[in-house]
Design a protein that fits this description.
100 residues; alpha/beta; four-stranded mixed β-sheet; two-stranded antiparallel sheet; 23% strand
Amino acid sequence: MSSTKHHTFVFPDDSRWDDARQAWNLAADLRPAVVVLPTSVEDVVDAVHYAAERDLRIVVQGTGHGATVHASLDGTLLLNMRELRRVEIDVANRRARVEA
């Protein structure tokens, strides 16, 4: 997929692999096919398209604080949302917009 931004996709041979796949629960040895670290909505869309084109399941990881260990992540794209943490406050309209 030519539109894939490689800096957000982390594969097992990448030096960022261990950090990208790490969960808060150290008992969870997550080994997906690829980890995606999106920094925008467009990155998430690219990841979903990438997974669909390759018939990969998608597992979303928020903070990684879950107590349970995921079943095998073989054939899975792990969508790690840790970089999507922007918060916008609209005081006048009493609204907040929060990324994943």
